[in-house]
Specification:
With about 375 residues, this protein is of the alpha+beta class. It contains twelve helices and eight strands. Helix 9 runs parallel beside helix 12. The model has no long low-confidence stretch (mean pLDDT about 85).
Length: about 375
């Protein structure tokens, strides 16, 4: 028990040190990129560091499996060089039993990352995006999904237009049961339009079965009139801008993903990428444990056996291979070329079984 606690504590602190090094390097690189991106706005070093500090956690969270395998490599190489591995083996401790402590730490880090760090990363990402929108004076269109359907805000030179629809098609170019509320440049409502169907065309929404209310009239309900087709509400939205309004699934907190997915599906949108991301988050602890086992299969050997650098390189390449497989499977899952469960769970399973096979070959082969 004492040995297991020692290994777990040492591995955990090694992981924190490497995580801190990565965070510091990524903040500095991102700060330089922020200064370059907003040079025309004239932001200072303090503002660039603030934006970088808010943007870096999302990038750091994506490379967490690579940080885990580097931490495991550092642990096993350090134990080998200090001859502690020799002492542990001489005491009769098997390799699989010895690995129980770092694997448990990896699983605990994975659970903590998904349940606690994921919502924090989502919050910092949203705060970063809002600051960027304020600095760059953009973000004229925003799309959100709720229990009432979807809400879309579009901007223009004449003011803002808020759109609410009960549901839509999968790409958001056709809205059903849509309501348009048009505001002037001072933020006062000027017109309300309800339509059975609103279809996105070049330069505007084409309405079918529409009725308009002039909100500046003394009695808007009395003066309401059905519009004559084809009724057009001007817009600068495009299919691409609507897709980009959703943002990345990673920007949504883990605990809010199920309800957000439900809202997307009720509104008529495809939530496939969000389902893939949700299952990938659930599989994250297993992936981190697989990275530890993979590092052990290559580097948990005596330093005097030689070729330490060679095996460290193989471990790093193996970790990058699993990381690439995970990203590739995510893309395949997002596009519907493979099932969601296969896209999310196959990389962790491949990592676990490949590492176990390597360990059994090295120890008993």
């Amino acid at each position: 028990m004492t040995l297991s606690l020692y290994i777990a504590r040492r591995f955990f602190w090694t992981f924190l040190r490497i995580l801190g090094v990565f965070y510091g390097m990524m903040v500095l690189i991102d700060a330089v990129d922020q200064v370059r991106s907003f040079s025309s706005e004239g932001i200072g070093a303090a503002k660039a560091l603030q934006l970088a500090a808010l943007n870096t956690p999302a990038s750091l969270y994506r490379v967490l499996p690579l940080i885990m395998i580097l931490s495991a490599i550092a642990l096993f190489v350090g134990l080998a060089r200090s001859s502690e591995l020799v002492v542990i083996r001489a005491a009769g401790r098997s390799a699989l039993r010895f690995l129980l402590a770092p694997v448990v730490v990896a699983l605990a880090v994975g659970v903590f990352a998904v349940t606690v760090l994921n919502p924090l990363v989502a919050a910092t990402t949203q705060l970063h995006d809002s600051l960027v929108a304020h600095i760059a004076v953009r973000g004229d269109s925003v799309l959100s999904v709720s229990e009432d359907g979807l809400w879309l805000r579009q901007g223009g030179e004449t003011g803002q237009t808020v759109i609410q629809a009960a549901r839509s098609n999968q790409d958001g170019t056709a809205l059903f049961g849509a309501t348009f509320v048009i505001f002037d440049t001072e933020g006062l409502p000027t017109e309300r339009i309800e339509a059975n169907v609103a279809r996105l065309r070049d330069g505007g929404w084409q309405l079918q079965g529409a009725k308009a209310w002039n909100l500046r009239a003394a009695n808007p309900e009395r003066d309401a009139a059905s519009t004559t087709p084809p009724a057009i509400v001007p817009t600068d939205l495009t299919l691409e801008s609507i897709r980009n309004s959703f943002g990345e699934p990673s920007a949504i907190p883990f605990w809010s993903l199920p309800s957000y997915i439900g809202g997307l599906e009720r509104a008529g949108f495809s939530a496939r990428s969000h389902w893939v991301w949700l299952h990938m988050e659930l599989a994250q602890p297993i992936l981190l444990a697989g990275m530890v086992l993979l590092a052990a299969g290559f580097t948990m050997r005596h330093a005097r056996s030689g070729k330490t650098g060679y095996f460290v390189l193989l471990a790093i390449l193996g970790g990058f291979g699993i990381f690439f497989l995970r990203n590739f499977a995510q893309v395949m899952g997002d596009t519907g070329q493979i099932p969601v469960l296969l896209a999310a769970w196959s990389p962790p399973v491949v990592a676990i079984f490949s590492a176990l096979g390597l360990l059994l070959h090295v120890e008993d082969g």
